[in-house]
Amino acid sequence: MELEGAQLPRVLDDPKVDVAIISTTYIQQTGLSPVHDSVFIEDKNSPYVNILVAREDNKNAENVKEFLQSYQSSEVAKAAETIFNGGAVPGW
Prior knowledge:
Elements: H1 8-11, H2 24-28, H3 62-71, H4 74-83
């Protein structure tokens, strides 16, 4: 069956559902741990990792470069680790 992402955690109790692919954001809202309650977690090489994009005409703009440098920092990785209880994998 196909459902919206926000509905997936609720169907885990349905005996007709064998498996669900649920994003970290939705699974965490249920109180489950992506690290401890998952049978599989994608790594940073997943084709489904979040991608940051910019328009072609401003991809080299200073503010875009500053944002990327800030976002791809150890501080952001540590914050994501805390916020998502180890379930967020930095994709850089």
